[in-house]
Amino acid sequence: MIGPMLLEGKKGIVFGVANKRSIGFACARAAAEQGAQLIITYQGDRLADGAHKLAATLPGECIALPCDVSTDAQLDEAFVAIRAHMPEVDFAVHSVAYADRADLDGDFVDTTREGFLKALNISTYSLTAVARRLAEMMPNGGSMVTMSYLGGVQVVPHYNVMGPAKAALESSVRYLAHDLGPRGIRVNAVSAGPIRTLAAAGIGDFSRMLERQEARAPLRRNMEAAEVADATIFLASHLARGITGEVLYVDGGFNITAL
Ligand code: NAD
User: CA angle, corner 71, sides to 65 and 76, nearest 5?
Assistant: First the structure.
């Protein structure tokens, strides 16, 4: 017998869909296939057409709206439109990151103040900024999931400024989980293995990360965005109702090895 869908009757928002390769889009697809009604967000005009087309390919109800997370003014404007369409939500996926290309090559020690602050503003602070606004839309509790990477815990060549950004993101997950837990809102991260996406293309020698993953991960292969999405949907669902403040690795076990 086929059971009920995991997100049947649930409403959710996925922040950070740039194209069909985006982990955010894989999450949107998995959520839609599990019965959720969705909003997907894109950064700005340049991505609007693509995002509307992607939304139309998903089963069920899904619309695309703009949401640039760089400033509070832009976020406030975006949330007016988001709330008008979906006053209450059950879950949200934060799949947003940015660092200047110059800071994703060479040595971390050369990171500029401007580059550091930009990466942490967009990749890290945006989770807290979005979580505060979302919490008001979750009167019956809810679930938030963000995307992290092992480079926040261990040194990965070329990941550079994104390392401290992900370390602070994972710490933010714990503080947000603590603050929002009494309201029945859970906050977790998924730490994904390397996947070829637009954001990944900016990282110097990314192919080497894929090769190391394939050679050394216990599962001896690279991850697909759909696998990361399935774990994300699990965390968003009732099945994960006892889990908050966690970082769930979806990396074929790569993080447990010291090979
Ligand atoms: P992606 O480029 O498809 O997604 C990144 C998203 O961030 C894009 O939609 C982009 O438009 C958005 N973004 C950038 N600046 C923004 C801004 N100012 N306002 C709003 N949105 C903005 O790449 P992805 O790999 O799917 O990345 C999604 C998340 O997954 C990121 O947090 C990334 O760090 C994380 N992640 C990726 C990998 C990987 O190997 N691809 C591994 C682990 C974690």
Answer: 50
Map out the domains of the chain with their CATH numbers: 11-248 (3.40.50.720)
Tell which atom from ligand 1 comes closest to the C-alpha of 166.
Answer: 34
pLDDT tens digits, one per residue of 190-210: 999 999 999 999 998 899 999
Task: Provide the β-strand partners of residue 15.
Answer: 41, 94
Give 102-121 pLDDT, tens digit per residue: 999 899 999 999 999 999 99
- The per-residue pLDDT for range 3-24, each reduced to its tens digit, is 689 999 999 999 999 999 999 9
pTM of the model as a whole: 0.98
Give me the residues paired with residue 147 across strands: 190
Q: Is the dihedral of CA 239, 245, 246, 247 positive or negative?
A: positive
Helix (H, G, I), strand (E, B), or coil: what is residue 91?
strand
Is 201 a pocket residue for ligand 1 (Cβ < 6 Å)?
no
Residue nearest (by alpha carbon) to ligand 1 atom 23: 199
Catalytic residues: 149, 159
How many angstroms separate the alpha carbon of residue 44 from the centre of ligand 1? 14
Q: Can you tell me whether residue 240 is helix, strand or coil?
A: helix
